[in-house]
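Duplicate of #3305? Posting structure anyway:
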């Protein structure tokens, strides 16, 4: 049996630990050989490969990024893309694929599986917004990076009596903002699931200054103002039709200054949240996902995604995991509101 492995979409800390787990179990326990595909779905589409054996996965645990490379290539947006993938897999003698990715990469995996390709999925995203799994690896690292940034911003905010805004990643879901914001003691947390009212935000900013403290505002890049309160410019789209985000922090900064007369400044954490070495928790989760993904291949359990539920790694249908995103619910967000203002 020859198993192909690919990593697609935005990279995240822990991808290499998954690859290592797959190969370290698959070679000795099942006698499989592996082939790495480069740059997400572009790999099988253009037959871009990389040898993948035990020496190739040595020393990978602390390494961020992905040794296979990644891209946001969508084979369904390319004419003849699926046929090319099927042909290349056959020519390369690849019997099964493990796709490590988020909603887009696994969305492609779901459709390919329905078209007869043997696929197992592994959930990855710093955004933690995939359904079927309690957590995705990469999330814990991103939250810790954002929390440390918030800790640092508190001290400089106090020195200069400024409102400091931290823009974190989170396209559709506010998990990073909520976890890092609560852990870092943010005074306002704005997430995509709950459109914000700029008047209320400015009231919280003012009340924080009145108590002689400086406000820290954590905002997800995908947060939006409530309808009819402020306008945002449209950005360019990627191959999956997503808008390139980034900039809500700067918009908030101007509005807060204009409405409160207080100085506001923004720090955009951006890709810093995705780079560098994974936390112990992410290495642990990613390694377990790798071990269980190769077990699923061995069982011929195609169309499944490995997932964390409680302390257990289970298998859920890829179609269910990619049907809808896992968003922050109103009750959870309300818990954080206790600390606003
Ligand atoms: O999907 C994960 C994510 O980190 C989102 O939070 C963010 O919007 C996006 O990736 C950014 O992607 P890119 O690296 O392509 O700009």
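Output from current build:
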């Amino acid at each position: 049996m020859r198993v192909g492995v690919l990593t697609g979409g935005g990279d995240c800390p822990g991808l290499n630990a998954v690859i290592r787990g797959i190969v370290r179990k698959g070679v000795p326990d099942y006698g499989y050989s592996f082939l790495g595909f480069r740059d997400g779905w572009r790999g099988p589409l253009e037959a871009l490969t990389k040898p993948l054996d035990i020496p190739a996965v040595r020393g990978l645990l602390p390494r961020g990024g992905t040794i296979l490379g990644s891209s946001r290539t969508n084979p369904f947006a390319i004419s003849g893309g699926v046929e090319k993938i099927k042909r290349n897999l056959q020519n390369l003698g690849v019997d099964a694929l493990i796709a490590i990715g988020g909603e887009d990469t696994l969305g492609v995996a779901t459709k390919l599986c329905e078209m007869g390709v043997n696929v197992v999925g592994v959930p990855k995203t710093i955004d933690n917004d995939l359904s079927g799994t309690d957590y995705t690896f990469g999330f814990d690292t991103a939250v810790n990076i954002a929390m440390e940034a918030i800790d640092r911003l508190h001290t400089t905010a106090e020195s200069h009596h400024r409102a400091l805004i931290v823009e974190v990643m989170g396209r559709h879901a506010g998990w990073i903002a909520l976890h890092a914001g609560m852990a870092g003691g943010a005074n306002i947390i704005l997430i995509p699931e709950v459109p914000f009212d700029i008047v209320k935000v400015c009231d919280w900013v003012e009340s924080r200054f009145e108590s002689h403290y400086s406000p820290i505002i954590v905002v997800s890049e995908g947060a939006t103002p409530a309808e009819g309160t402020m306008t945002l410019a449209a950005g360019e789209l990627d191959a999956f039709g997503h808008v390139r985000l980034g900039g809500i922090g700067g918009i908030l900064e101007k509005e807060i200054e204009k409405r409160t007369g207080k100085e506001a400044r923004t720090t955009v954490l951006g890709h810093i949240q995705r780079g560098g070495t994974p936390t112990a928790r992410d290495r642990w989760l990613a390694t377990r996902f790798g071990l269980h993904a190769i077990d699923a291949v061995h069982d011929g359990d195609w169309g499944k995604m490995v997932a964390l539920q409680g302390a257990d790694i289970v298998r859920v249908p890829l179609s269910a995991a990619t049907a809808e995103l896992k968003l922050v619910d109103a009750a959870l967000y309300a818990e954080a509101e206790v600390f606003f203002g």
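Confirmed duplicate; merging threads. Residues 10, 102, 125-127, 169-171, 221, 245, 274 surround 6-O-phosphono-beta-D-fructofuranose (CB under 6 Å). Residues 67 and 194 are 37 Å apart (CA to CA).
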